[in-house]
Specification:
The structure is a single chain. Helices cover 23% and strands 32% of the residues. Strands 8, 9, 10, 12, 13, 14, 15, 17 and 18 form a 9-stranded antiparallel sheet that branches.
């Protein structure tokens, strides 16, 4: 046991304030100077995390309070990033469960808490945002206790201590009614209730790799909690592979400790501490690093399996290669394999077609985040609609099912229930709240694809949706998920206002005037379930009777611009999203209309 160290993870539903809470702990832990200007949500260091307001990658930091080091791991709250959560929980001895005093525990609270309880971790309940209007901190705590019962918490986990406060305003109290001034009650509770890390300082060095970082200077950095002994720069260690227990020799070139928002080099690290080790050509999450060649591989918890797969392809469209730096099959393959090394919940496989790769993941949001990251790095690619990964058992096809929670305004309940019926969702519970209704249902993962767009449209953006993997069950048959057809460009060139004004009478436009389009590209949505060919580049013919000035008053409805995540869920099986650093285009897999008809005839004949 190392009495001077505590290792904790912060877990919560999306938007319950855990990253803001970490900001205040860092500030009171002396990480920032008194006059230092620090961005809000300092732990959300990725651009995408700041834009979306969510945590995507689990990150380490450390604060020093009194003479103790508290290592803090900030975890994602979204179920799509379950792999990140699993890894984070391997390194810690307790969790801070942050719950909004108004919302109470939500779907992702349930997901992450279940994982923590399975790992046997101690829990501290933090009822946050008690200053919020209509907040009910006592009711939120009662709901947490109900959830702990439901998730089969042990007696010790059920008797978790609770603190109340506001992360934004920087105070915590141990009981309601007390006046809060700072975060001291939370620090005291952590030191009292979270045990020091279980480690064996007298044994030879051994550590399980729970995360991988990358540095342009030292290459791969293995992150984990030292379970025994100590490590020093210059020592020889052995890597025991998780995949085949092969043993490889390596030399530690650098050791990093976490402090505040950065890392600091140290000549040696002791048992119980969370550190980063460099000096490895190749190392993966789940590998064991040990001082002795004959060391046993340490057990690595298997994470939830991927439930969706989709294709990543080289951009073969007419505008391919104009916008990106990385456009070849080799570059795309190398980047996807690099992603799968640091993200254990993603699997990448080659296919029998050149330049086409199968990627398996936990959810459409996880894929969209990956594609967006690659776009910003300068990659061009085509991405298909997600399809579910099925299983065969006793001659029957099984598909993944999820538990779904949707909170919607009262007036939207009918429309949402009709949508769920179309997607073969089974309603399991309805709860009426003061201003909304919570609909709980069981639905196939297929049925979830594109549902978020429908919920946003039906509730004018006021609906909240979250889901959790439940089980594999019998194939549910055909589902209706997209009720509309498309408007397809038949000619290549620049769109004109003249052409678009006629096309917009047939549906919603995806493009505005002056944009480049090509044959087979989706330029709009048609309310009927059929594809209509349109010429979006047609120019007005000038004659002796028509002056050039006529028609200048064309009124165009602004084009609908789908986000990457929505575009991936919107497209049909025979369509792609073309993602480049500057553009998102929707297109058919087969661009030429004559070739599409040939394939359709062959399928009907077959």
């Amino acid at each position: 046991m190392n009495q001077s160290i505590r290792n904790i993870a912060i877990i919560a539903h999306v938007d319950h304030g855990k990253t803001t809470l970490v900001d205040k702990l860092l500030r009171e832990g002396g990480v920032f100077r008194a006059n230092q200007q620090v961005a809000e949500r300092a732990m959300d260091s990725m651009d995408l995390e700041r834009e979306k307001g969510i945590t995507i990658k689990a990150k380490n930091t450390a604060v020093h309070w009194l003479d103790k080091t508290i290592n803090i791991v900030d975890t994602p709250g979204h179920a799509d990033f379950g792999g990140e959560v699993e890894r984070a929980l391997r390194m810690v001895d307790g969790v801070l469960l942050v719950v909004d005093a108004y919302d109470g525990p939500q779907a992702q609270t349930r997901f992450v808490l279940r994982k923590a309880l399975q790992h046997g971790l101690k829990v501290i309940v933090v009822i946050n945002k008690i200053d919020r209007e209509n907040a009910d901190p006592k009711g939120a705590h009662d709901k947490v206790l109900e959830l702990l019962l439901e998730l089969n918490a042990t007696e010790e986990q059920f008797d978790a201590p609770v603190v109340y406060g506001s992360g934004r305003d920087g105070y915590m109290v141990k009981s309601l009614g007390q006046k809060g001034t700072d975060m001291t009650p939370l620090f005291e509770t952590i030191l009292e209730h979270i045990p020091p890390p279980f480690a064996k300082p007298d044994e030879p060095f051994h550590m399980l790799v729970s995360n991988i970082d990358w540095s342009d200077y030292v290459g791969r950095i293995a992150i984990g909690k030292i379970l025994g002994g100590k490590a020093a720069v210059g020592e020889t260690v052995w890597i025991v592979r998780k995949s085949d227990t092969r043993r490889t020799r390596a030399k530690l070139t650098q050791i990093f400790e976490y402090s505040g928002l950065g890392t600091s080099e140290t000549p040696a690290a002791i048992a119980g501490n969370i550190v980063g080790l460099a000096g490895f050509e190749d190392i993966d999450i789940g590998d064991t690093i040990a001082a002795n060649e004959d060391a046993h591989p340490l057990p690595f918890t298997e994470i939830d399996p991927p439930t969706l797969e989709m294709q990543f392809c080289v951009n073969d469209g007419p505008l391919g290669g104009r916008d990106g730096k990385f456009v070849t099959s080799r570059q795309l393959r190398e980047r996807l394999l690099r992603e799968s090394k640091s993200n254990v919940s993603i699997k990448v496989n080659d296919t029998d077609k050149a330049g086409v790769f199968n990627v398996k993941a936990r959810g459409a949001m996880q894929i969209a985040i990956m594609v967006e990251t690659m776009r910003r790095e300068g990659f061009e690619m085509l991405v298909s609609r997600p399809t579910v990964i099925t299983r065969e058992e006793d001659g029957k096809t099984l598909e993944p099912y999820e538990t779904l929670w949707i909170e919607v305004p009262e007036e939207s309940v009918g429309a949402i229930m009709q949508n769920l019926a179309n997607r073969k969702g089974q309603i399991t519970n309805l709860e009426k709240h003061a201003h909304s209704t919570m609909i709980e249902s069981t639905i196939t993962t297929r049925g979830l694809i594109g549902l978020e767009i429908d919920v946003v449209n039906a509730t004018s953006g006021r609906g909240v949706l979250s889901h959790l993997f439940k089980e594999y069950g019998p194939w549910a048959g055909e589902l209706i998920t997209r009720m509309t057809g498309t408007l397809l460009a038949t000619e290549a060139g620049q769109t004109t206002a003249y052409a678009l004004s006629a096309i917009q009478e047939r549906g919603r436009l995806f493009v505005g005037p002056g944009e480049e389009v090509y044959e087979g590209m989706l330029v709009g949505e048609n309310p009927r379930q059929e594809d209509i060919p349109v010429n979006a580049v047609k120019a007005k013919q000038l004659t002796n009777f028509r002056s050039q000035g006529e028609g200048k008053g064309i009124q165009l409805t602004p084009a609908v611009k789908l986000s990457l995540e929505r575009a991936i869920e919107y497209i049909a099986i025979d369509e792609f999203v073309e993602a480049t650093p500057k553009f998102l285009r929707l297109r058919k897999r087969i661009l030429k209309q004559t070739e599409r008809r040939k394939v359709e005839r062959a399928e009907r004949a077959g």
